[in-house]
Design goal:
With 244 residues, the protein is an all-alpha fold. The chain contains nine helices and no strands.
Length: 244
């Protein structure tokens, strides 16, 4: 169960990308929390549906080594020639494409922000006539396509979840630090149930990160090495001074 955590977390990965479009939406103080709420509700409903409807459909060993477990589970339940299985697999394909698009939106805005701050080439911060960061979108698409062509989807998921968990831990620690240092700061969105809810989230993130590292030592080492190189580049470019 712990070894499968990255694939469970993948269900919810990139939902934080909603915040990256805050500069492009109308009334972000109202619409961004609504987007998070609707997105999380949809993901929880779908995750529960997958767990309940496909978890016990057959022998798990028949699905364990497949890159397409949900269509395979549908085939086991409905028969290899079922048109319903093909129909639901097609719906899943559209969902996968939508997921890629959502990830591209979030990642492109991150690339745009880094380029605007001077950490990436300035061309990636350019906007087109519709005020969209088209070069950042293109760069993210090229990197994503290259990653898919490696044929190592499972390892890419582990690396992505490692990055997400590290970000969650750092963000939660930053939340506590900011609450302590700036208690009177105006907060358009306040975390409900503070400090119990953030503490629970931090504990779950640390548990998941520990399990992920334990079961993926080599990939975790690669992730840590790349992270240290990027941190050195950040410090070398004066990033720490800018944050102060």
């Amino acid at each position: 169960m712990l070894a499968a955590l990255p694939f469970a977390i993948w269900f919810y990965l990139a939902i934080e990308g909603v915040a990256m479009v805050a500069e492009e939406v109308q009334d972000p103080r109202r619409t961004i929390p609504k987007g998070y709420g609707y997105g999380l509700f949809t993901l929880v409903a779908l995750a529960l549906g997958v767990m309940v409807l496909t978890g016990g459909v057959g022998d798990w060993r028949q699905l364990a080594r497949l890159d397409y477990p949900l269509p395979a589970a549908l085939t086991l339940a409905l028969g290899p020639g079922s048109r319903w299985a093909q129909f639901f697999a097609s719906i899943g394909l559209f969902g996968l494409v939508a997921s890629f698009h959502g990830t591209l939106i979030g990642s492109s805005r991150q690339v745009f922000a880094l380029a605007r701050a001077g950490y990436l080439p300035g061309a990636l911060a350019r906007l087109n006539g519709r005020q969209a960061p088209h070069w950042a979108l293109g760069a993210g698409a090229v990197v994503g396509a290259g990653a898919l062509l490696t044929g190592t989807t499972d390892q890419l998921i582990v690396l992505a979840v490692l990055g997400a968990l590290v970000m969650y831990v750092v963000s939660l620690l930053s939340l506590f630090a900011l609450r302590r240092r700036e208690p009177e700061l105006a907060r358009p969105f306040a975390v409900p149930g503070y400090p119990a809810v953030p503490l629970l989230a931090l504990a779950l993130a640390l548990l998941s990160l520990g399990a992920l590292v334990y079961y993926n030592l080599r990939l975790s080492g690669v992730f840590a090495a790349v992270g240290l190189v990027l941190l050195a580049a950040f410090v070398g470019l004066g990033g720490a001074k800018r944050l102060r």
